[in-house]
Amino acid sequence: MARYLLHRLWHSVVTLVLATIVVFLGMRALPGDPALALAGEQRDPASLAAIREKYGLDDPLPVQYWQFLAHSVRGDLGTSIRTDLPVAQMIATALPVTLELSFLSLLVAALIGIASGVAAAVRRGRITEWIANICALAGLSIPNFWLGLVAILYLAVAVRLFPASGYVAFREDPLSNLHHMVLPAFVIGTGLAAVIMRQTRSSMLEALSTDYVRTARAKGLPPHTVIIRHALRNSLIVVVTIVGLQLGALISGAVVTERIFGLPGFGKLTIDSVFQRDYPVIQAVVLVTATAYIVINLLVDLLYSVIDPRIRIRGREPA
Amino acid sequence: MGRYAPSVLTRLLPRLLAAVAVGAVVSAGCAPVGQESDTGSGGPAARSGGATPTERPANVGEPADSASVREGGELTIALSAEPDLLDPTLARSLVGRYVFNATCEKLYDTNAEAEIVPQLATALPEVSEDGKTVTIKVRTGIKFGDGTPFNAAAVKRSLERHLKLPASARVSELGPITRIDAPDDETVVIHLSAPFAPLTAALADRAGMVMSPAALDRLGDKFATAPVCVGAFKVVRRVPQNSIELEKDPNYYDADKVYLDRVVFRIITDASIRAANVRSGDVQVADSVSTQDVSALEREPNITLLESESLGYQGVTFNVGNVDGVTQPPKPIDKPHAQDARVRRAFDYALDREALVKSVFNGIYSVACSPISPASPFSTDEAQECTPHDPERAKELLREAGVKTPYRIEMLVTNTPDALRIAQALQAMVKPSGFELVLQPTEFATLLDQQDRGDFELLQLGWSGRVDPDANITNFVGTQASQNVAGFSDPELDDLLTQARQSTDQAERARLYGQVATKIREEAPLIYLYRQRNLTAVSNDVKGVQVFPDGVLRVARAGFAK
Q: Of B346, B471, B331, whose CA–CA distance to B399 is shortest?
């Protein structure tokens, strides 16, 4: 297990460095630079030059990259060219918003997805399955932004049940925070729920047809025990993998949804900084995202061994 | 479901969808106004009717007084873009000026007629006979937000910072200043190497803002992290990409005319979402309303739409000599549109501006034929003269110039829905006259890069406008000027512009700018298309919100209605 972990960690570091290089070069290959984006309407050559000098944009690329790498290793992510704030601070304010949104969306997705997946599998061929399937199809097909706008128009502008957009920090006002988060979490959650539902349904169907389920039933266990403790638990391995893989969808969903609902989260920060060519912010954002991806993949792999003891046992065997 | 939900849906949804689907994401504070998140579905043909531009009356808002509003309350404003640094020396964004208006007063201000009036100064500047010495009397006995006394020395210090700080955005606005003196507490004397009439207007914008010397001592070039000026409100908190919060400043000299306790600017970049927020009551004010949302907002009984003509313009620029980059000496370009003004004139004749604003902006914006807004005190009949729509004349000019038709020309446009709709309308409009317009939709920062490098044939962009005409013209068409991306150079025009800049007689300047407009129309390196209106939605619960032709949102003296 320790060796496996070490191996995975080494790979992670290489992946991270490669990701930063790709983004570093990619951003600089884009036409325009932060000075131009910052100067906007007022582009006199003297102030453009001053901005470029202040942020070291005139240095050779390897020097700039080395600076970035050397600073980030020490935990210094630099200063935003757009806002003059430390990037670490900007990420620290944006990240909790997206984490909360992702958590709530996942919660919504898991609750709806697993429940309807199980129902569809157990009540196969009946109206329940049809309804669940139709809902899943709708959930998969309806884009986030459309659902978000419809939600705003009906639930915020027309009946004023929820705020149309905006954000209040949880520690300032937990109730108002949740009130603002309900619509965006549902918008992202429903799309994800469809994926979870379909996955749960198919692996439940598979599990329900296995011998151990038949045995459990033959032993006279109550149906809910068979479904939840035997069939569902075994089906969840695949579901957890899918949820892990859906992290990308969660983040890209957050980009669009945060924009629509005006949430100052990580997705919005990413988009804004790309358009502003705010190099330090983009680099830091990618670093953080790549790290998150790697850590989550690692966690998902480790979670397997919790859910399925067979993986844990095999892990102990000599390679 | 609300009683008007279905109609809300049918009216708004297609537009909301178009807005987000096309990804109207660019909303940098620096983006030219109207290049932002205006929304739209369908082509120009989908819309018709609407009032002609001249029929729409201006509404700059009424001032509030203690009889009409109550003390206290928190005003929330939906802001179309995130302001950049809240440092008067470094700030560049238009929306930043909205925040400054409540927090950072200037030597001079602009009134509803776009005239300059004293604010921290006590009278208009006295200019010496030779135009090289400008004396300004300033207020005494007032304080900055941190309690530091305001005086001429503080003004001198701020002005010198504007001139000396690297990365200052104010240097070119302030002109040829050689020295600044503060002989006593209430007198500032500015010495110039040549007369510079636009100075007063510059002092009515960020260059005229005075920063607390104590805050400058403490923060240096990090002034934006905790800005302190003389203002009705002070900045208490800023959450990046989300909000800027202001609190009433008890040290403000006119504090008894400030009614609100707090002002919160919330950044909502999408025009449709801003409109939705003001309709749902989540915010009380929304700036830069899209022309697409105007009719829906006008139907709301509890919302008033403020509107005034912008001092800026939108237009198309030909690359006539920008080979080595902007500000470099122009070089000849071997293309008929660069060599021959007749080709560019033909393009001008091919335009039907009335039809353009009517079809694309429901007639809410007005046509522009020169850089001088009719709302400007510098406007004259000559400045408002317009090339008529005449396709036959356009074809004739192209024939005279000896070019083969259809004449193919590529146009760079920003990839926002609004800019694309304008570009498509232009494309269709100039075709019968013999132009084949090929559109190159480009992301904003890329477009800026391409235009500065001279990597374009024709491009569509605008300018948000300033009070003094010089700031709307010289930088764009003066030889090797900072934003002359056309690479245009004409000694006669340069001469007229210099004369206009150095004259201190407004009538004389207005006359000269009329000639400038004619000259630009004849040479046509830049063809003006339309002029936006500053559109602001305000809830009727709030009184005293104003937007003057300078486009700056004024909320410092607003309050909640009694």
A: B346
CB of A125 within 8 Å of any CB in chain B? no
The 10 Å Cβ neighbour count of residue A17 is: 13
Does the structure show a pLDDT above 90 at A73?
no
> A28, A33, A42: which to substitute to probe chain B, counting the most B Cβ within 10 Å?
A42
Asked if A41 lies within 8 A of B32 by C-beta distance, the reply is yes
Cβ of A139 under 8 Å from any chain B Cβ? no
Beta pairing, strands B74-79 & B262-267: parallel
Structure tokens given for A159: 């009946």
Residue from the list A30, A164, A271 with its beta carbon closest to the beta carbon of B273: A164
A152 contacts in B (CB within 8 Å)?
16, 273, 276
From the list A60, A109, A50, the residue with the least C-alpha distance to A81 is A50
CB B107 within 8 A of CB B314: no
Which of A43, A166, A275 lies closest to B26 in CB terms?
A: A275
Which residues, 6 or more positions from B469, have their beta carbon under 8 angstroms from its beta carbon? B371, B372, B376, B378, B500, B509, B513
DSSP letters for B8-47? HHHHHHHHHHHHHHHT-----TTSPTTSSS----S-GGG-
Q: Which of residues 375-434 of B touch A (CB under 8 A)?
A: none
Which residues, including other chains, have CB under 8 Å from residue A32's CB and lie 6 or more apart?
A277, B445, B446, B448, B449
Q: What is the pLDDT of residues A128-143, one digit of tens each?
A: 888 888 888 888 888 8
| Side-chain-side CA neighbours of residue A25 (13 Å) | 6
Q: Note which residues in 458-487 of chain B have CB less than 8 A from chain A.
A: 463-464, 482-483
Give B104's Cβ-side CA count (13 Å radius).
29
Annotate B279-308 with b (16+ C-beta within 10 A) or e (fewer): bbbbbbbbbbbbbbbbebbeeeeebbbbbb
Q: Do B445 and A47 touch (CB under 8 A)?
A: no
Contact B276 A153 (CB under 8 A): yes
Residue B47 has pLDDT above 50, yes or no: no
In chain A, what residues touch B34 (CB-CB under 8 Å)? none
| Inter-chain CB pairs, A–B, below 8 Å | 174
**pTM for this entry:** 0.81
Q: What is the pLDDT of residue A41?
A: 67
* Residues in Cβ contact with A259 at an 8 Å cutoff, skipping those fewer than 6 apart: A267, A268, A271, B20, B25, B269, B270
List the single residue in B with minimal CA-CA distance to A150: B13
Interface confidence (ipTM) of the complex: 0.74
HSE (CB half, 13 Å, CA atoms) of B383? 20
Q: Kindly provide the residue ranges of all beta strands, DSSP E only, lying in B107-232, ordered along the sequence.
A: 108-110, 116-118, 126-127, 133-137, 177-184, 187-192
Residues A103-131 as b/e (b if ≥16 CB within 10 A, e otherwise) read: ebbbebbbebbbebbbbbbbeeeeeebee
Number of H helices, E strands in chain A: 15, 0
A163-180 per-position pLDDT tens digit: 888 888 888 889 988 999
Which residue of chain A comes nearest to B465, CA vs CA? A41
pLDDT of residue A64: 87
3 state SS of B433: helix
Per the CB < 8 Å rule, is B445 touching A276? yes
